[in-house]
Amino acid sequence: SSKMTKGTSSFGKRHNKTHTFCRRCGHRSFHIQKKTCSRCAYPAARVRHYGWSKKAQRRKTTGTGRQRHLKLVYRRFRNGFREGTVPKPRNKNAAPASSAVATK
Predict the structure, then answer these.
(1) Phi-psi region of 55 (alpha: psi -120 to 50; beta: other; left: phi over 0)
(2) How far apart are CA 36 and CA 30, in angstroms?
(3) Which terminus of the chain has fewer CB atoms gathered within 10 Å of its CB, N or C?
(4) How far apart are CA 42 and CA 22, in angstroms?
């Protein structure tokens, strides 16, 4: 193709990757030369999100992942962050925990 075009013939020459997979968000948005993710801004401490895209905020907000730590915090909050207490026995005729195994 002798013509100077910006279109179809130029697209065939593209075989280098500018972006690879991001360790934080898992998307193919980590710029190899810049060493930053265009989707979540890794390695920045704060995850990238902007007010001009409400739908993108919904996709990555709290509650869309596993919440491995936060769901424990929610449960502890409902019980007033109590620590070092022993739960009450569940049924009326429950034997003490220490003698339950020994009396066999």
Answers:
(1) alpha
(2) 6
(3) C
(4) 8
